[in-house]
Amino acid sequence: MKNFLINRLSPFFSVTKFSKICILFLVDSHLLIISSSISYLITYKQNLSLINAAIIGSILVTVRLSCFILFKLYQVSWRYASTREFMAIYASLFLGSVVLLGISQTVFSGFVIKEDFLKFLIIESLFSLFFILSFRGFIRLIREEMYFLNKNPSTNLLNTLIIGAGSAGVMIAKEIQKNSKLEYNLIGFLDDNLSKVGQLMCGKRVLGKSMDLKNLYEKQDIDVAIIAMPSANSKKVREILESIKDTNLKFKITPSLNDLIDNKVGVQDLREIVISDLLGRNEIESTIINKDNNYIRDKSVLVTGGGGSIGSELCRQILFYQPKQLIIVDNCEEHIYQVERSLKQDFSQSDIIYVVGDIKDRTDLEFVFTTYQPNLVFHAAAYKHVPIMEENPKSLIKNNILGTYNTLECSKKYNIDRFILISTDKAVNPTNIMGGSKRLCEVITLAMANSYKLNFSAVRFGNVLNSKGSVVPLFKEQIKKGGPITVTHPDITRYFMTIPEATKLVLQAGLLSTGGEIFTLDMGSPVKITELAKDMIRLSNKEGQIDIKFSGLRPGEKLYEELSYNESTLIRTIHNKIFKTNEFCKFNIDKIDTMINEFTTRTLYDEPITLSKLILDYVTQSNNIESQVIS
Question: What's the predicted TM-score (pTM) here?
Answer without folding.
Answer: 0.70
